[in-house]
Structures are given as C-alpha cells and as structure tokens.
Description:
This protein is mainly β. It contains two helices and eleven strands. It has a single domain, classed as FomD-like (FomD barrel-like fold). Helix content is 15%, strand content 47%. The strands form two sheets. The chain has a seven-stranded mixed beta barrel with strand order 1-2-3-6-7-8-10. It has a two-stranded antiparallel sheet with strand order 4-5. The radius of gyration is 15 Å and the shape is globular. The model has no long low-confidence stretch (mean pLDDT 93).
Amino acid sequence: MQDAFTIIKNDHLGREVWRYPGRLISRSEKGLLFEAHFNRSDLDFNGMLLKQNDRFLELYPFDKYFNIYEIYDRDSGLRKGWYCNVTRPIRIMDACISYDDLALDLLVFPDGRQLVLDEDEFAELNLDADLKEKALKGLGELRRIFRDLAPFDVHKLI
C-alpha cells in the first residue's frame, strides 16, 4: 500500500467538507495511522490553540465509529492533546480514505480533562435510531480509552 493519501471529511450525509494530504505511517488489522499537518489558519479551539502546520497523528480504526487525532505543536513538538471525531467507519478507495462525521466530538487535554462537543448539533441530525446508538457507543468507547492517559499511546491502538 502506498503512503501518500488524501483524507476526506464528509458531513453526515456523505457530502465532502474538507480534504487534505496525509502520509500512511502504519497499517494493521485494527486500522490505519497517518501523519498529517493542520492546513488552516491558527485557531483557538475550546482552549487548545491549533496552529497552521501543527502535526497530527491520525488513527482510523477499521469498523469503529470514531477516529483519534493526537496533536503536536508545530514549534515545540510537544503534545497538545487529542481530538476525536464520532463518525461512520472509514472507507478506503485507491489513495483516499473518507469518513462521515456525525457531529459529536471529544477533546482531551494533556491533564486528562475531557470535553464533549457538539451534542446539540448531533441531536438535530436526522439519524436513524441504530446509527444514533452506534455513534453514542463510539463516544462511550472514546471516553473509556482516555480515562487513564498514563499508558495511552496512539501507536498502541494500531
């Protein structure tokens, strides 16, 4: 498998919202791990400053309803925290991976503090009961993963 990919984020209806390049670092039976760089202007995001060219290690598990981004500062190289999307499972086609975002997000700070985002937006989506349940289970799994940060390493999940 080649290492240069395009990563595509879609909305819950499958319409493209954002695309950017990523480099495949690792693949296992559990999923894919990519390196990518934040390609938007600096943004204060719920108390975490995301800077253009911050380094992201992006974990896309197979058959899971989430992904996990481990974020590193472009200047210091220090880990800032994790941003997790609740999604449908990824699709892979040629040199592209895509996922459908289901609005719910989990932001995790280095001190272990967790912030669930966009619950109102999720509630307004016209999702069937089965998909809503899978999305909420995905969020629950993410929250469990991050309960104990000491041993957490995105590489161990791949």
